[in-house]
């Protein structure tokens, strides 16, 4: 059995971004753990991952529409393509829910 990567890319790209966000948050959390407690490290890791995805999709939008610097209109996320929006929002929402749970926990 061979995997149809074109089908996966077309229909499940958002899932890969969610996994990438979790791995990135975990990596930054481990790096931050050198200086901070686990809870603060998790907040740093999750916030970093959310910001990373916003920055990457903003850059992709700017490139796709040939936007000249300073790229301020790239912050208008409602102008992003459906692909850019579905790359960013599922990962950002997952990471924000995890961030909420970390911050909500007593400790």
Automatic annotation (TrEMBL):
<feature type="transmembrane region" description="Helical">
    <location>
        <begin position="12"/>
        <end position="36"/>
    </location>
</feature>
<feature type="transmembrane region" description="Helical">
    <location>
        <begin position="88"/>
        <end position="103"/>
    </location>
</feature>
<protein>
    <recommendedName>
        <fullName>Transmembrane protein</fullName>
    </recommendedName>
</protein>
<keyword id="KW-0812">Transmembrane</keyword>
<keyword id="KW-1133">Transmembrane helix</keyword>
<keyword id="KW-0472">Membrane</keyword>
